[in-house]
Amino acid sequence: xxASHLVRVGSVGWARAEWRGSFYPEDVPEDWLLPYxxxxxxxxxxxxxxxxxxxxxDWARWLHDxxxxxxxxxxxxxxxxxxxxxxxxxATPAWEARHLWWIDEAPDLRALAQRVATxxxxxxxLFVFSRQGSLARLEHAAELVRVMGY
Length: 150
What we know:
alpha/beta; 6-stranded parallel beta sheet
């Protein structure tokens, strides 16, 4: 895994009404939200209730509308298989414990920097997500990752 892919920052979902006018321009069409989100973030976490109802056509569009290094991280859903794509990761509890940092629950940037360094040492990816969609915390995490060179 290259350094540019070592740490990915993102939110739970991208269609957040509270981001209109602050992150998204007021007049951006609904179907442009994901491509716009993809310009600032490297991943998105999707709850099971969100992704399991998505059609194959919509998945194909989402994968097409995002960069080749953008990743969809999915909460497991009983009895539903995720789309087959190297850009889609199923966040099992074991995977989540090893690869996921919830910035809302652990906003200490020193602790995050230590976790990033640990992942860099072994070359394993780390995903930093905000459940609350806190743009300020996401920006702090993204800046930390930039400063550390990842």
